[in-house]
Amino acid sequence: MTLFSKRVKVKRTNYFVLLCTFVALSILKGEVLAQNNRADSLLSLIEKTNPENNKPAFAKLLYDLGNEILLTEKTGNALDALEKSALIYRSLGDSIHYAECLYKISYLYNLTGEYSKSFKYCLHSGSIASQVSLTGLEGQCQNLLGRLYYLLNDEITAMDMYEKALQNGKKANNKKLVSEALCYMGIVWRNRDSLSLALKIQREALKLRVEIADEGDCASSWLNIGILYSYMKQNDTAVYWLHKAEKTWEKLNDFFNLAECYNYLGKSFIKLQDTAAAEKYFNRSLQIALKIRAKKMIRYNYYELALINNSHHKNKEAFEQLMLYTFYKDSIIHDQGLLEIARLETKNMKEEKDHEIELLNKNNEVKIMQLWYVACGLLLVIILSAFIFRSLRITRQQKRIIEKKQKEIFSSILYAQRIQHSLLASEKFIEKTLKRLMNNDVTRE
Question: What backbone torsions phi and psi does residue 19 show, to the nearest 5 degrees?
């Protein structure tokens, strides 16, 4: 395939994606209409934005829309918008916003009980966040992974994840992240029947949430405090805190948390022996849970309603609700099984990767040792060469000194010979002169 044909194929794919996006948004507009002004405004902007001219802006609008309706009854539409946004950000190579989209998708899958998908998306988001140093997002992923491990009854790993999120939150001075980690830690301690410690931790989380004035997070703390008082059999106090959370979430249209709050209110009224109030709250929780596809809440509500109807001798209703409870329970067990499979697959992949890294490290160690031996050999050669060079230099110097001395001795010998020759010549001259003088004296006589 030529480069040109590849580009054409990519362009056609983008057009197909954008066409699907517009179709989905057309449907979405009809369903979300009058949900709230923010969602309506986003839909209007999306219709006016040309995705080909400004893809980053279009992806941002989709992300904001998905996030806006994330906790409403339109979970399917929120997921669709977030997935489209993630697709565009990935095509743009925008790792930061791509990772944020993946986290939101993971969070939504967790709420709807599709835990294996939540686990995979969360791991992917956390991995990118770690690579690009998004401490806050990495901490959010750690908290969500902790919740998933908690579902698998792996409290040790869950607490380890929460601790990492807590440290990341402190490192980034992110009170929201710190309070979230504390909140989940408190739930683990509640499950261990350490109720006093759990309450202390939940109040610490609430204090931080009051400081940052986050209504939704404060309501989460009120819910957890209410649940703890219910565990402590202080049901009137529990209802007080649960009503505080209820009012806030009704104002915020936070359907996921409302479903859970209504369910716990129903349980508290059962303990207060107010069956009518309990049944009312269980039915409210069930209606919302069915709309948002929150299988865990659906299961809990069918079980509680079956017990109430059974106590009222409404056997048919109780039987039907018990059968539905069993169906959703089996569905959740199936989802948890898929989550366990996903975890094992990830664990095996990690072990294989760790094994590869270990082998690579060993090979690197061997190579390093080889390089070390070569370096030592070269160093030894250099030292020997320096020693030999020094010896040669000293030898040459000594040779020059000896040659110089030899020359000096030879010159001295020559000089002495010349002196000796000159002395011998003088003796002969004197001898000849004396002989001549003596001969002259004899002649005169």
Answer: -65, -45
Asked if 375 and 367 touch (Cβ cutoff 8 Å), the reply is no
User: What b-and-e string marks burial along 181-203, b requiring 16 or more CB atoms within 10 Å of the CB?
Assistant: bbbbbbbbbbeeeeeeebbebbe
CA distances from 157 to 107, 114, 150, 167, 169 (A): 19, 20, 8, 15, 18
Query: Residue holding tokens 């750690």?
Result: 142
Place of tokens 């939150």: 169
Q: Which two tokens stand for residue 269?
A: 């009224």
pTM assigned to the model: 0.66
Residue type for 288, please? I
Per-residue pLDDT tens over the stretch 369-417: 667 767 777 777 777 777 777 777 777 777 777 777 777 777 777 776 7
In terms of Cβ atoms closer than 10 Å to its own Cβ (0-12, 13-18, 19+), residue 273 is exposed
pLDDT in tens, 158-170: 999 999 999 999 9
Tokens 């664990």 -> residue: 347
The answer to whether residues 249 and 261 touch, using CB atoms and an 8 Å cutoff, is yes
